[in-house]
Amino acid sequence: MARTSSEWAKAPNLPESHYVDTRIYTDEDLFLEEQAKIFNKVWVIACHESEIPEPFDYRTFRHPGGENLIITRGEDRKVRAFYNICPHRGNTILYDPSGNTKRMTCIFHAWSFDTKGECVEIPRESEGYQDRFDKSDASLREVKCDVGFGGFVWVNIDDNCGTLKEYVGDALGLLEESLQPEMEVFHYHKAVVNTNYKLWHDTNSEFYHDYMHYFNRITGMMQPGYFDRKYTGYKNGHASVGSMAVKYDAYAGSEDRGVGWPGLAPGGWLLIDLFPGMTYNLRTSVLRVDTIMPLGPNKVIIEFRGLGLKSDTPAERAERIRDHNAIWGPFGRNLHEDLLGVHGQGLAMRDARTDSHYVLHGREENSTIHDEGGMRHFYAEWSRRMGRLASDPERSPKAEAA
Amino acid sequence: MSHRESIEELIYESGARLDERDFKGYLDLCEDGYEYTIEAYSPEIRKDMIWLHHDKAGMDLLFKNLPKHNSDHSTLMRHLTVYKVDVDEAAGEANVVSGLQVFRTELDGGTTELYAVGKQHDTIKLNGGTPKLGNRKIRLETRNLGIGHHVPF
Ligand code: FES
Ligand SMILES: [Fe+2]
Prior knowledge:
The structure holds 2 protein chains of 2 kinds. By secondary structure, chain A is an alpha+beta fold. Chain A has 11 helices and 19 strands. In chain A, strands 2-11-10-5-4-3-6 form a 7-stranded antiparallel sheet, with no helix packed on it. Chain A is globular, with a radius of gyration of 23 Å. By secondary structure, chain B is α+β, with helices and mostly antiparallel strands. Chain B has helices at 3-19, 23-28, 56-65, and strands at 30-42, 47-55, 75-88, 93-105, 112-125, 132-140. Chain B starts with a helix and ends in a 13-residue tail after the last strand. Chain A binds chain B through residues 47, 50-51, 59, 96-98, 185-193, 212-215, 252-253, 321-322, 325, 329-333, 335-337, 339-340, 343, and chain B through 38, 40, 42-47, 49-53, 58, 61-62, 65, 68-72, 143-150, 152. The site of fe (ii) ion has 5 residues of chain A, from helix 9.
């Protein structure tokens, strides 16, 4: 029987770890709290080192906590990160997404900074400041930065954070061999979608939705081994899904794969989700890495990168691009379906007035592919960091335990 | 009809047939060796990118598989303006550059948005008096395509 209003509002008949309250997707205050308690505390991927190969190359980056950053490679080849804010009158220092500059000069009054974040020029400094203030008072705010796990540039806003290695822990272990060779980004695009960032990460953390993908249904779900793939949860909310042999020739036009990837069995597929919104997805001949920049509770920028090997011949690279585009990219068969899904969720649950209440993560299948344990593992970490139960954000997990 | 007129007509007709989702009709306008590419330049990674590339058989398969996929059902309208037609009589070809604007209309309520802009580079086989599409390269200026689209531009 369909449900009445009070039945609809009643908590699901599942353990509290197996569903979430949809306010965590729609509430403005919770969102601001997530930026402070989660995004400004964890390591996130800002870009890939191949995007700044030369000294003085830079990338700008909108950090998911809200800060605007500059990532730049110094003369010493070291990669550093700074706030992209001029200490004078608060202008954006670098406007373009990428470039190469020895001195980062603010267009407003020409204060200039080097790649170590030091202020090296204040026009008419002594005339204006006499000896009350000088360049040494005007350096940039540096942000913790490290390069690793496949040559990605990671940043952490928290000066007192642990190391990147500690944060990732063993989570990328399944990809250890695959992340050894030098890589290069060949595909980049951003999508702005009206949905909550966690719904995107959830989609990357559950495979039950393979029903949505014609491509995955026939190349994966209908093939032997599919239901043996297993979820593993790691410390800090990360999770991985082990490999299977994907039968690509079941989808006409997607046969003949040859290039592959080091450490990935032919037809293999490895997926690792890092808290709170990064995904390494290795299948066919391509590593896809997703990162998110939430703009509000129901708006997110998702960044998509496709990577190949630096050593690729033109023919190898062409095959990777072809593999990538068959399912991914703005015209790929699967990515559009995934985005259509989270767009629909954003539409259905966009704010409290939609009277949505709960989202279920209740499937238990011994941690195999259609188990929803990947999402449960994420929300356990979310609850811990937020000090709020995802199933009832007004209550704290500690109070429950006491 | 002059070359320029029949070429312009072909370009506009190809856009109109895609708008109408007359995919067979669209492929009828293409040579057997037809190739279709969507490209864009990313200033973030400072590289040219290919986002879609198919030969005629690949396009045919893409169209035939469409009903099997879950897709956004908003409609697309392609607005093309032929800027330049370079006819090479000796080669029996013409190179055509057109401006492309793609408008997307939501099914529910019919709100239209400008979805993408770019340039379309066509190589046309003149075939005596009945020109056909030999190669199409769409170079997109727009790179944020939201949730993306299953139907090529
Ligand atoms: S605001 Fe940057 S130099 Fe004045
Ligand atoms: Fe998916």
